[in-house]
Amino acid sequence: MNHLKRYLATLCAALLCLGILSGCSARNSSDNKMILDGHKYPIGQCTVKELTDDGLTLEEGVDPEQTIPAGTLLAHPILLLKEGVPGASVVAANPSKTDLPLSQCAVYALTGFYTIDGTKGACQVIYGGTDFEGYDREKVEKAMGRPDNADKNTDLSTLDQFQYAGANYAAAFSFDDSGIITQIQLERTGYKVNR
User: Fold this and answer.
1) Residue 14 exposure: Cα atoms within 13 Å on the Cβ side
2) What is the pLDDT of residue 168?
C-alpha cells in the first residue's frame, strides 16, 4: 500500500511539474501584451493616449487630435519618444464605424526597442514576463520555444526575425548582424479595417 501511495504521489508531482512547464511555455508564447517601463499594453485594446499618458511623446509633427477615418489602419508606424530618445513605435487603427482622433485609436502594433540604429532604446521592454535585452537567438529560443517561421531543419542563425503567432496576435523578435535582439513587435491580427 505504501508503494502505491509513493507511486501516486510521484505521478502527481510529475504531472504538476509538466503542467507548470507547459503553462510557462504557453504563457510566453501566447501573451497579448507588452510592458514598457512597467505599464502593460494589451494589443488591440489599448489606445495611443494610454501610451502618451504614461510619459511617451509622439514624434514631432504628429498631431494626437488628427482625425483618423472609420475603418482605417495607418500605413506607417509612429515613433514614440521618452525624453527625446526613441522608446517604441505604434501602428494605430480605427476599427470603429466613426471617425476618431489619433489619440483614441487602438494600438494595432506596438514595437519596443532594445536598440534602434545602434542606440539603446529609452524604455524597458518586457514580453511574456521576460526582459530580453542582450539576448541572442539561442536565449530567445530557450525562453520562447522554436519560432513558428522555422521548421526543424532551419538554421536559426539565418533568421533576422523569430515569429510567434497566437490566436489574435503575432509577435516578432528582430536581431542585429551579431545576433543580439534589437526589438520586439507585437501585432494584433484579425482587425477588419480599410473596408
Assistant:
1) 6
2) 87
d(CA 44, CA 95): 10
With cut-offs at 50, 70 and 90, classify the pLDDT of residue 194. low
CB atoms within 10 A of CB 13: 10
Q: Is 165 helix (H, G, I), strand (E, B) or coil?
A: strand
* Continuous segment of H or E residues that includes residue 28: helix 2-29
**CA distance readout (Å), 135 to 8, 35, 89, 138:** 40, 17, 21, 8
130-164, pLDDT tens digit by residue? 999 999 999 999 999 999 999 999 999 999 999 99
Q: Which of 63, 57, 133 is nearest to 88 (CA)?
A: 57
Q: Using an 8 Å Cβ cutoff, are 103 and 172 in contact?
A: no
Percentage, residues of the chain above pLDDT 70: 82
- The answer for residues whose C-beta is within 8 angstroms of residue 137's C-beta and 6 or more apart is 156, 157, 159, 162, 175, 179
